[in-house]
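R.M. (postdoc): so does anyone remember the format we settled on? I'll just put the structure tokens first.
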């Protein structure tokens, strides 16, 4: 059974991918905290609508029971990528650097908690599927 084809697992996988990429961006911000002219960046969090639109070819689509059914609008792969934004939360120092290390570390901690939460959801849904199949979890 390919769990990646189930919409819920596909969305959780995409969420984990976004969180991992966000951790990279935040780590780059912290690493460049003393670099003159560096502006802090962050990733735009995908909306629920964007998640349902599908990413990397995993669309949530209506079930077609006949070949003559019309495909819903927007069913094609959107090719969604994570959008990079300039982080406007911090003040710009005299050197032109806008990285606020404390703020970045709070975002890193929040991303880590969100990652653990999503992993726990993933595990619970796997256990629920095993229970439905009558297998010990």
């Amino acid at each position: 059974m390919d769990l990646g084809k189930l919409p819920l697992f596909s969305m959780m996988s995409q969420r984990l991918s976004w969180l991992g990429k966000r951790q990279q961006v935040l780590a780059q911000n912290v690493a460049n905290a003393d670099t003159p002219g560096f502006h802090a960046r962050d990733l735009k969090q995908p909306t629920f609508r964007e998640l349902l639109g599908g990413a990397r070819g995993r669309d949530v689509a209506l079930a077609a029971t006949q070949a003559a059914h019309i495909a819903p609008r927007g069913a094609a792969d959107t090719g969604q990528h994570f959008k990079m934004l300039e982080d406007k939360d911090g003040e710009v120092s005299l050197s032109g650097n806008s990285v606020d290390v404390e703020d970045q570390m709070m975002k890193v901690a929040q991303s880590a908690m969100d990652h653990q939460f999503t992993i726990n959801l993933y595990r619970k849904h796997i256990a629920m599927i095993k229970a439905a199949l009558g297998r010990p979890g």
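R.M.: ...and that's the designed sequence above, right after the tokens. Also worth knowing: The chain has three helices and two strands. Confidence is low (pLDDT under 50) at residues 55-60, 73-80.
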